[in-house]
Specification:
With 520 residues, the chain is mostly helical. The protein contains 21 helices and no strands. Keywords: Cell membrane, Membrane, Transmembrane, Transmembrane helix, Transport.
């Protein structure tokens, strides 16, 4: 036993980490690769559907299988890392993700593709939380802001550039390359991880199967409900009612279990850390705003503004540039400015960008789309880094594995809920607005259209007016969604007052935290 203990790797000393820059580069390559896959495949679905012989409804399982699998496995990453070693689990996750990405690229039928995507989600689930955990552990607390700036750049840029890159690869080469692109990135990440990632201690800890099963049922049912709700007309469908009941029951059983079990799957004590609890709430809100706005813009620009896919990607890309610039700047500002102030500034920028988006009209050019995107990039970049730093600033290191897993999970669930809410509001409002606009059509409108185009029949004139009414109804509905997200963003600002300032900022940034190795 003593001999085995001697062979256990020591904890990570954040003040003495060899090849820190190479470790961070390897981690970020893996993160970008995984996060890209949340959006890159979306634009390839029509081509994929034709090649795989799928219907409009069944092709969506390519996205659903990945999302649900990743959501269920994400909370498990902390336990796996503690039990088998964080380095080992991270490398298995990256290798598995690359292998199944390659298999997705050669898939020959929809059933096979869904299985490969499901496995891709299983392996990819651990990449982001474990990478964040490593980034926090290999950097001293006073440098966590800079580390989270680099980490946040990958998290933010992935979903933003995904549709653009996916559209380019699909149009210029083939849809299969949206999966093959992961192979070179993954190979470099695997090599860097194998050579430079430090080992962490392993713990012989039991597995709370009942607690994990309850959480898995809850998360899986919730994700299924959110993903399929719009297709099934929400609670008009029996399936959605069943999934909602399973989600509520699962979360209730899980909550009761972790509060009463001796060794629960997640230690409830970690939620007593106020910064972690508020950080999870904030990242949930950020998830709603980030992917919900990204989900609305492409169809709006395509259907109402008549932009082709590549133009849509180019118009949206400045959002990523704004986020990157702000994250690099924030990485330096966190040393001298209260992180809570930066959060307020970021949320204000984001709310202002959504206010600009609520003034969009089909007659305008791309100027304000680009400007609002850059401002939103500034805002989200200003929020993500301080929140990622504050959430773990006061958390005991032994809880970081589970904390980063929950951080990633809440961001993804927030994204799913945000997309579902804005999509449902959009669909409902289009129907309501269209009905109101059409009700205003009268013989004078009809005559005006017919006189404006000589020889136009009454039926043709009605079609023209109906198309105009549909476009206007859709534009009003998009604007209403942007206003809704603006109010959600503003409502999050008062929560900043519940966050605690990190100790190293209280001491002016000059005090070094204790140099004891980080153990798990």
């Amino acid at each position: 036993m003593a001999e085995a203990a001697d062979k256990q790797p020591k904890g990570i000393d954040p003040h003495n980490v060899p090849h820190r820059a190479l470790i961070m580069a390897s981690l970020m390559l893996a993160v970008i690769m995984q996060v890209l896959d949340t959006t890159i495949a979306n634009v390839a679905l029509p081509d994929m559907r034709a090649d795989l012989g799928a219907s409009r409804d069944t092709i969506n399982w390519v996205l659903t299988s990945y999302i649900v699998a990743a959501a269920i496995v994400t909370p498990l990453s902390g336990w796996l890392a503690n039990r088998f070693g964080r380095r080992e689990i991270f490398m298995v996750a990256v290798i598995g993700f690359v292998v199944f990405s390659m298999l997705c690229g050669i898939a020959w039928s929809l059933d096979v593709m869904v299985v490969f995507r499901l496995m891709q989600g299983v392996f990819g689930a651990a990449i982001v939380p474990l990478a964040q955990n490593f980034m926090l552990d290999i950097n001293p607390r006073e440098k966590h802001g800079q580390a989270m700036a680099m980490f946040g750049a990958g998290i933010m840029l992935g979903p933003i550039i995904g549709p653009t890159l996916g559209g380019y690869l699909t149009e210029v080469i083939n849809w299969r390359w949206v999966f093959y692109i992961n192979v070179p990135l993954g190979m470099i990440a695997i090599a860097g991880s194998a050579f430079f990632l430090p080992e962490t201690p392993k713990k012989k800890i039991g597995f709370d199967f009942f607690g994990f099963a309850a959480l898995a049922v809850a998360i899986g049912s919730l994700q299924m409900m959110l993903d399929r709700g719009s297709d099934l007309d929400w609670f008009a469908s029996r399936e959605i009612w069943i999934e909602a009941a399973l989600a509520i029951s699962g979360f209730w059983v899980f909550l009761v279990w972790i509060l009463s079990a001796k060794k629960p799957f997640l230690e409830p004590k970690m939620f007593l850390d106020r910064n972690l609890s508020m950080g999870l709430l904030f990242i949930f809100v950020i998830g709603i705003i980030l992917l919900a706005s990204l989900a609305l813009l492409p169809p709006m620009l395509s259907n109402i503004f008549s932009y082709p896919t590549l133009t849509t990607g180019l118009v949206m890309s400045p959002r990523g540039v704004g986020a990157m610039i702000m994250m690099l700047l924030i990485g330096r500002l966190v040393k001298v400015i209260d992180l809570r102030i930066l959060v307020v500034v970021g949320l204000s920028f984001t709310a202002y960008s959504l206010h600009i988006m609520s003034t969009f009209s089909p007659q305008m050019g791309p100027k304000w789309i680009i400007i609002s995107g850059v401002i939103q990039g500034f805002g989200l970049g200003s929020v993500f880094v301080p929140i990622s730093t504050l959430a773990f600033a006061t958390l005991a290191p032994e809880y970081r594995g589970d904390g980063t897993a929950l951080f990633s999970l809440l961001r993804n669930i927030g994204s799913s809920i945000g997309i579902s809410i804005v999509t449902a509001l959009l669909t409902h409002n289009i129907a309501v607005n269209h009905s109101e606009i059409v009700s205003a059509i009268n013989p004078q409108n009809l005559s005006g259209v017919m006189n404006g185009a000589s020889g136009m029949s009454r039926e043709a004139a009605l079609t023209v007016l109906n198309n105009l009414a549909t476009q206007q109804a859709a534009m009003i509905s998009y604007v209403d969604d942007f206003k809704f997200m603006m109010w959600v963003t503003l409502a999050a600002i008062p929560l900043v007052f519940f966050l605690r300032k990190p100790d190293y900022q209280n001491s002016g940034g000059g005090q070094k935290p204790q140099g004891a190795p980080v153990t798990e």
